[in-house]
Design a protein that fits this description.
With 202 residues, the protein is of the alpha+beta class. 36% of the residues lie in helices and 31% in strands. Strands 1-2-3-5-6-7-8-9 form an 8-stranded antiparallel barrel. It starts with 6 loop residues before the first helix and ends in a 9-residue tail after the last strand.
């Protein structure tokens, strides 16, 4: 058993304490640098969104806009560009990705709300509320969709093009699937009809 009165043991314990203190300081500094870099990446993305998106034939406007924002951040961000949200970055890079199993018109159920959502094989979507709070729905939205890493990716025409909305996909069957929303709630999609001959990947 070590004798803690031995000077060599005391020196060892002081070195251990110094190493622990240095490690703690390094972790705190790394966290601050990461937080600062992530903030800079977010600010850069906001500046990149101010540039009008270039029209690209055959590609939904929302998707083209998000891909242009990502390219802008990566080209101009330096270290900050590397720190942009990895899941969002990888999802946008993977698009367009429109598996045939999701192409079609769906009834999307949330508590008190029913939407009709058309997922097209060109990566665009249109959605309209048909029931809200027990009353006839009003309004709608459109944009681009896709699937990446078992998540449904949404980009909207009437919202900022970054970051994309990412919803994990659960409980898939031939006739439906469930999306997990950002707040933990779920939306159940039930198939209404499929297009006659979708030009999508299987």
């Amino acid at each position: 058993m070590a004798d803690w009165r031995d000077p060599s043991v005391s020196r060892l314990s002081r070195w251990v304490l110094r190493l622990i203190a240095l490690g703690t300081v390094a972790l705190v500094l790394a966290g601050l640098l990461y937080s600062c870099g992530s903030h800079q990446a977010s600010r850069l993305a906001e500046r990149c969104m101010e540039r009008p998106p270039r029209a690209e034939w055959g590609r939904p406007r929302a998707l083209a806009a998000a891909q242009q924002v990502l390219a802008c951040v990566e080209q101009n961000g330096g270290t900050a560009g590397v720190l942009i949200d990895r899941k969002a970055r990888d999802a946008v890079r993977a698009l367009p990705s429109v598996p045939c199993r999701y192409v079609g018109t769906w009834a999307a159920f949330r508590p008190g709300t029913l939407w009709e959502v058309e997922l097209r094989d060109d990566s665009s979507f249109r959605a309209k509320a048909t029931l809200e709070g027990g009353r006839a729905g009003s309004g709608g939205t459109s944009g681009a969709w896709g699937v990446a890493d078992e998540r449904m990716v949404w980009l909207y025409d009437n919202r900022p093009s970054w970051p994309p909305e990412l919803n994990p996909i659960r409980d898939q069957t031939d006739l439906g699937f469930t999306l997990v929303e950002a707040d933990g709630s779920t939306t159940r999609f039930v198939l209404v009809r499929r297009p006659a001959a979708p030009a999508c990947k299987s």
